[in-house]
Amino acid sequence: MRKPFMDSEFLLDTEEARTLYHRFAEDMPIIDYHCHIDPKEIYEDKPYQSITSLWLGGDHYKWRLMRQCGYAEEYVTGKAEDREKFRAWADALSQAVGSPLYHWSHLELRRYFGEELPVCPANADAIYDKCNALLASGALTPRSIIKASKVKVIGTTDDPCDSLEWHKNLQEDKSFDFCRVIPTFRPDKLLLIGTAEFTEFVARLSKAGGREITDLASLKEVLTGRMEHFAALGCRSSDQSAAYFPCTLIGEEKCGEVLNKALRGEALSQQERLGFMTEIMLFLGREYARLGWVMQLHFGVARNTNSRMFSLIGRDTGFDRIDSSAPIETLAAFLDELDKTDSLPRTVLYSLDPSMNAPLDVLAKCFNEAGVKGKVQHGAAWWFNDNIGGMKDHLRSLCEQGALGTFIGMLTDSRCMLSYTRHEYFRRILCAFIGRLAADGELFWDEEQLGELVKNVSYNNAKVFFGL
Fold first, then answer.
1. Which one of 259, 286, 301, 331 counts the least CB within 10 Å of its CB?
2. CA-to-CA distance for 381 and 464, rounded, in angstroms?
3. What angle do CA 172, 178, 182 make, to 5 degrees?
4. Are 56 and 158 in the same domain?
């Protein structure tokens, strides 16, 4: 017998799963500890112009699918009329059988627009008109979405040079008392030494820090000042993205020499670049530990694979891919270098390569601290892996190599305000996974104990881990 389409029991294929989800997970609040939402959008709380701009305005997941379905860039990131773009998206989604985009989109329609029609060409105009009517009424704004989604904390992603004025405005706004929006320190461009981007970043950092950066000492002083500024506005974590994290130890003196060469515009060797990256990351890691922050490390991404499209529309537009060459050996050595001096902060490791699941889970358990559950975490199934298969594989690896009950759970990693349904998606998959273990006799069924574990993974563990 065919099950109803995405009803209240969606993905919950055992009685145990249904009990865990509806009794323990469904009504838990959300900590979205890593996302790319603009805090200005939340502060201004402006109504959205159309479902097209809300859904397609900055979502490279959707852009990739539309291109794969043969749509010209005019309908993706170009200047086609909103209704025509939406029709194109509806057609593309109807071809995406089994895609998380198919599930996410329908969850968003149901939870925020009360729309249960399936997305397809025949329904495109009706869905478009209903959604736009609700948006035009002003009933669905960023703040109303956050409140309705029971989001208690949002961790944005912020450049070290950012003034954080919008975070400050939100914290001073007494009407916005149902959620904390906190910054996350994202110093990616520090690792681009030897490039024009690094030089431009240092110039901006000098201006933001109020003093010229002329050497390693002044660079560290300014970075420390910026971290203190972030901490004053509630920052609880950093986030660093790189192809991989090296551990090439050259020492502070040599690191200073490499920086001076870069500031003079001289060419650097690969060894010099890796050495600087290592030393500056060690410095940052020690500072994070001092501040009590969490260090998040994202890697395993090959950026801008399509050079022609990169030259036309730039980065973060849907042309990145999984890089399977990131070495775990250097990552392990880097963590160990911090641990040697008891300066390893609580850490979350995210690899885009799913074959790294077991190696990362095993690595994470090499570093521990009394009183801290899961000091080094294998972070949520990320980007190309936040789908049913990817999440199940991730959960299975967490179980087999560690302790699932210490996991800090899901994040959106999104630029779209409607993406909080990804937490629901994860919680359904989590409950289905645990419920199946119990139903198959692999796990003793203690409803209260397993329910508490589900609540911890859904919300409580992240609250404790990030010091919230």
1. 286
2. 20
3. 60
4. no
Contacts of 442 (CB under 8 A, 6+ apart): none
Mean pLDDT of the chain, nearest integer: 97
- For 366-419, give the DSSP string: T--BTTBTTSEEEPPP-GGG-SHHHHHHHHHHHHHHS-GGG--------S-GGG
Tokens linked to 220: 């560290």
Comparing CA positions, the residue from 46, 80, 48, 65 lying closest to residue 119 is: 65
C-beta separation of 17 from 440 below 8 A: no
Q: Map residue 321 onto helix, strand or coil.
A: strand
Q: What pTM was computed for the model?
A: 0.97
Nearest CA-CA partner of 16 in 461, 415, 381, 454: 454
Quote the number of domains for the chain.
2
Residue in 77, 46, 142 with CA at minimum distance from that of residue 416: 142
Joined tokens for residue 332: 């392990």
Q: Taking each helix axis from N to C terminus, what angle separates 357-364 and 328-340, rounded to the nearest 10 degrees?
A: 10
Give the relative orientation of helices 196-209 and 216-232 as an angle to the nearest 10 degrees: 60
**Host domain of residue 66:** 47-136
129 and 151, same structural domain? no
Kindly state the tokens that stand for 2: 């065919």
Q: What is the per-residue pLDDT across 362-379, written as a single tens digit (0 to 9) for each?
A: 999 999 999 999 999 999
CATH assignment of the domain containing 379: 3.20.20.140
The pLDDT tens digits of the residues spanning 308-342 come to 999 999 999 999 999 999 999 999 999 999 999 99
Domain final residue pick, 85, 109, 136: 136
